[in-house]
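Hi team, as promised in this morning's meeting, here are the two structures we talked about. I've kept the exact order from the run log so nobody has to guess. The first one is mostly here for context; it's the second one we should focus on when we meet again. Sequence first, then the predicted structure tokens.
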Amino acid sequence: MKSQHINPFIEATISTFETMCNMKPFRSGKLQVRGGMIFTYDFIGILGLSGQIRGAVIMTMPIPVGMRIVSEFVGETITDTSSDLMDGFGEILNIIAGAAAAKIHDYKISLALPTVMIGKDQQMHANQHKPWVIIPMSLPDDIGNFNIEVAMEET
């Protein structure tokens, strides 16, 4: 995986949150590269990538952070784990992945439909030869932290 494939996801995340959620996220730690089991927060969105690059992008965060983000996105307060929360979260991930794919000019990338899950103590397995790049992010005003995680390979 190349840095020019990761940076578009960081840029797209910041841009999407600024324009769609009135929030300015920022990187809150060093990128991590992990294979094997990786731990996630309890709110997870996964979107597959196919075409000349295949892989996936994950957005994961605590549920209260997701509720705050989706509330800003839809313009009304979300207070429970309803279909509005799940749909809004998936749509934000879809916008981020689409914007990032558009910035990776050298490749044709197709996006799958996002899948959104909720559950405590989730773990995901990453192939040792195709590790996840974990991008820790934070939101101002102590709203909370989240991760963007990307795994991809050229076909």
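And here is the second protein, the one for discussion:
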Amino acid sequence: MLGAPGVGKGTQAKQISNVYSIPHISTGDMLREEIKNRTQLGEKAKNYMDKGELVPDQLIIEMLLNRVHKDKHTDGFILDGFPRTIVQVEALEESLVKLDLPINNVIEISLDNEEIIKRISNRRLCPNCDADYNLLNNPPNEDKCRKCGETVIQRKDDREETVRIRLEVYNKQTKPVIAYYKRQELLQKVDGAQSAKDVFNSITMILQNAQYKG
């Protein structure tokens, strides 16, 4: 699953995981878990994420490939947030050759930058139970978590100025990844401006067509 921050990759990947019964592996979730547990990797990653920068390739590659090899997902998996650079593409392909797991589909969810900024800058998070909110369509109860009552917060990397930096970094480092998979004739683009339901329907249609061709 490819796409800029805030396009809904994680939401869609989780639904696909449920429907097709294959694991959803999110580098963002893994990094946030490392940060929450205050591991050495998490502390290093946090310094980059708070500034809107990508976590260095070596840290991401090591974390993700350790997970893939450890869990031995022989029936496949969904990658969300990886690869983000050409270096990560090369490391992933080398690893998948060893596991005899080809890449079957690369799906890019596309969305206008200003819409992305609006979506992300309105995100809120409960620091106690990790419940997610959005002031646009899923607001908390007067800045309080509806689940536990804790005051919700805005993550540093969700602030507008940081989001703009994240998008600049994405365009510079991840667009070449999209171009690479397009040349490989693996890339399928989905309009992220649709409703979440319509985005999901578009993705499942792509996956069904791919299975039929296979």
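Starting points for discussion:
DSSP finds nine helices and six strands in the chain.
The CA atoms of residues 119 and 166 lie 14 Å apart.
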